Amino acid sequence: MAKKIGVTMEVGNDGVAVITISNPPVNSLASPIISGLKEKFHAANQRSDVKAIVLTGNGGRFSGGFDINVFQQVHKTGDISLMPEVSIDLVCNLMEDSRKPLVAAVEGLALGGGLELAMACHARVAAPKAQLGLPELTLGVIPGFGGTQRLPRLVGLAKATDMILLSKSITSEEGQKLGLVDALVPSGGLLSTSRKWALDIADGHTAKALVHVFFAQRATSKVPNVTDAGLKPRPMKKVAVIGGGLMGSGIATALLLSNTRVVLKEVNPEYLQKGLKSVEANLKSLVSRGKLTQDKAGKALSLLKGVLDYAEFKDVDMVIEAVIENIQLKQKIFKEIEEICPPHCILASNTSTIDLNVIGEKTNSKDSIVGAHFFSPAHIMTLLEIVRTENTSAQVILDLMALGKAIKKVPVVVGNCIGFAVNRTFFPYTQGAHMLVNLGVDLFRVDSVITSFGMPLGPLQLGDLAGHGIGMAVKDIYAKAYGDRIFRSPLTELLLKSGRNGKINGRGYYIYEKGSKPKPDPSVLSVVEESRKLTNIMPGGKPISVTDKEIVEMILFPVVNEACRVLDEGVVIRASDLDVASVLGMSFPSYRGGIVFWADTVGPKYIYERLKRLSETYGGFFKPSRYLEERAMNGMLLSEPKASRSRM
Ligand SMILES: CCCCCCCCCCCCC[C@H](O)CC(=O)SCCNC(=O)CCNC(=O)[C@H](O)C(C)(C)COP(=O)(O)OP(=O)(O)OC[C@H]1O[C@@H](n2cnc3c(N)ncnc32)[C@H](O)[C@@H]1OP(=O)(O)O
């Protein structure tokens, strides 16, 4: 059958024109294709029923680039006029300068001129494992459709030079990390997501969301009765960190990098050495990644002192406790440091879950107690949750805000509750995934759909990363605090019983081997089957059938629901603080504006109705909160401030 060569355009009811290149087997950019593209882009920009445009390739490949046969003809005839005018007429005037947003939906491969066309689009959505490259030098020509200019702007000069001069391709996964790909979605959702992206750009959503995050991040610096009380932050010249584990060594590293003297205390020489080595390794890693010079790393290390007792605590300005989540141990430490440290010393805990009033129970100086909740890895992640109790003084909060900024963090002041703001809002994230898996949905599909939404890790892989032992340790604390809406899943316990602690021991839902990407572990499915038998929630014993959209809703709408309770209880000063915390603490996609901003774009009423129906089918885990119901019924946005001020 004669192969179909040409360019088609279909305009959907959503106002998106999908322009498709068809020239099997690689959709090479032959002359008919180039003239077809010019015609279709011109038409799309003229049509009043077209709001946005998606460019894609037929047959599972975007385009293998300019038609190499033309080069052969030019070699034979010397007739350079055979080379079509592309760079200006098509690439610049009709694509990059298109009045309507243009999104490339890339699958399979985009090479040479193919990738150059994709880079002229305003955004790029790609399926996994697509091959992206500019291999022109292997043909003795340079990328001639603007790739030498656009690629460096997207991935940086060093990477672009590498790709062009060595004709090195990358995958769409690496492209996402570098900024060449804006979103990675399974092939099945490529066109729909690309259409949504194109419409979002047309409606200004994507830009609106990013602008919102920009201003929201700056708004976190305004804390009523703290930053407007005429107080001055006190200098934190010497800080003690208790506990040299993953968090403690990360916190110590962050402090050293801001030229703060650090005393790192451990319980025995072995642990102390381990902690000091971790700090050294953190600094070395920053140097090897070009983020820190060798001499600055040496200077930072010179400010670190390891100790096994409190002798060095007599003149510290702040102590940050970062030991295991054990209430009795923390209470003991706080009692000890209160006796040793100077009166002005701030007593901070890096606890991620435990109530600060409980930690400080055996102390008298309640006004000096504060939470300094870092996110792992503490020397990399920028969010610092400053957790205040009803007794924490404004001065202490201001001091910790100033220190947070000095160590290049974004401090967000939050109230004292189990999980504070981020962990509290996102505890349904994992639980929703567990429910879906126990309802028979494939766990690897759940992770894939959620990463396609824009989260860096699916909920199950996140559990692997955090470690299932930690998950077990905090499970009862959350059940006690929020029992009415907890989904009790035996999955974590069964994983641990089967020796799957997570990335920490190389096995969880995925297999973790040094130097390679996590691989789904099919052998974990027997553990999943056991969990399904124990929970026995599959209707009629059969797995439920859900769409990708339903998976996103069943996992993220309960998160929105919990965010509503966080807003309702005034755990955050303003809704946008929670947006910032979700983006910086959970890597919620910034182009969606943060958890509350995104929920308002979806619509509180729609979310409320979906949760209500889900709760009727699956129980209290989905029960809409009072705040969500009120806002949905009154046509209000979730981000609108409450009449009464926050409790802080
Ligand atoms: C010399 C003239 C001077 C003129 C002045 C110069 C001015 C500067 C240049 C201006 C224009 C530049 C525009 C652009 O920047 C340049 C380009 O895009 S050059 C092309 C870049 N692309 C490539 O190099 C990719 C080459 N192809 C491959 O790597 C592989 O084919 C593939 C795409 C990875 C697919 O691999 P496979 O699946 O293994 O399939 P095959 O390799 O067997 O190929 C199948 C079939 O397709 C044919 N084919 C592949 N790519 C092209 C192509 N780009 N053009 C035409 N035909 C292509 C291949 O020959 C096979 O054909 P078959 O054998 O089945 O007939």
Automatic annotation (TrEMBL):
One of its GO terms (molecular function) is enoyl-CoA hydratase activity. Keywords: Fatty acid metabolism, Isomerase, Lipid metabolism, Lyase, Multifunctional enzyme, NAD, Oxidoreductase, Peroxisome. Residues 419-512 form the 3-hydroxyacyl-CoA dehydrogenase C-terminal domain. This is 3-hydroxyacyl-CoA dehydrogenase. Gene3D superfamilies: 1.10.1040.50, 2-enoyl-CoA Hydratase, Chain A, domain 1, NAD(P)-binding Rossmann-like Domain. It is found in: Peroxisome. The keyword Secreted does not apply. One of its GO terms (biological process) is fatty acid metabolic process.
